[in-house]
Amino acid sequence: MTVAVVGTGLVGTSVALAAVRGGFEVRAWDADPATLAIAAAHDGVTGCDDLAQAVAGSSLVIVATPIAAIPAVVAETLAAAPDAVVTDAGSIKGHVVAGAWSSATSRGLSLERFVPSHPMGGSERSGPAHASAALIDGIVWAVTPTAVSTDAAITRLEAFITAVGARPVRLTPERHDRLVAMVSHLPQVASTALMSLAATEEADEPDILLLAAGGFRDLTRLAASSPGLWSEILLANRDEVIRAIDLYVGRLRRLRDEVGARSGEGVERIFREAKGARLGLTAKPQVRAGVAVLQVPIPDRPGGLAAVTIGLAEAGVNIEDLQIVHSPEGGRGLVHLTVAADAADGAASVLASHDLDPVRLA
Prior knowledge:
Number of helices: 13
CATH topology of the largest domain: Rossmann fold
Order of helices and strands: EHEHEHEHEHEEHEHHHHHEHEEHE
Number of domains: 3
CATH superfamily of the largest domain: NAD(P)-binding Rossmann-like Domain
CATH class of the largest domain: Alpha Beta
Mean pLDDT: 89
Strand order of the largest sheet: 3-2-1-4-5
């Protein structure tokens, strides 16, 4: 099966590399020759001179261009590859579906072979130089068929998604946009707003960022994302993003009011509810019923993290999630390990035997 990727940015190139790894023949094209050249330098990715050459004879075409370009490219691809199933990688679906419908019908094309989708993988980095097949490993890949997408087209796309190591999850375009506004777009907004606040409101405090500990660094990581990309995403999903921001502001006000009322019980209740929900947010559904978080101080030197991971590996303890919180004064860091609850005591014992000092947080 030949797969064509149109648009070779971070996501497009990562999908292409995952497809190569899965044994597919992969062709690629990008409107920017320099971007295409970087993507085509990867083994197994064949760069093409134009879109028609890239999609000719393909079984599946993934359109991974900027959102504004997707509808027109989808229509052009449907015309140039009459046997291909066409999907896209846009992070907004309602906007894409409406635009694709308009572009296709104006050319007398049917959308039966078009199955919109959204691979839920990404990074604050951008461009093909940072692409990796690992970006696709284990991710949820939302499949959002239109009213006229055929079952055969949906099945072909979902089979590909599974073959490259992702997990297809079927949603309506409307539901997709509502959910990603909360779990994808709002985190970007919150991260950017917090970083902007610290940078501008405390501009006369040059030492403020020196005091920024792990929590601040974790929360503001997304603020390093592409401004142009995120401006486009937020405006394309405007109504749902505004709704999510309003809900978030309401939660902030609720917490502010509890603090203002000196209600220790109220503040603790909010934190307890959030903590319980966070502990259920593990990478694997089978461990959601019970996880534990261990905090482990490690020295900031080569091999520091290896002592943790090797020790647990020797004991047969799987790490479900891992975060590193760097200490602002340097010299050490804190590793937060999530393990299955029934493995927590054993993990703590193993780490202690390696001269580490784990503390169970939950």
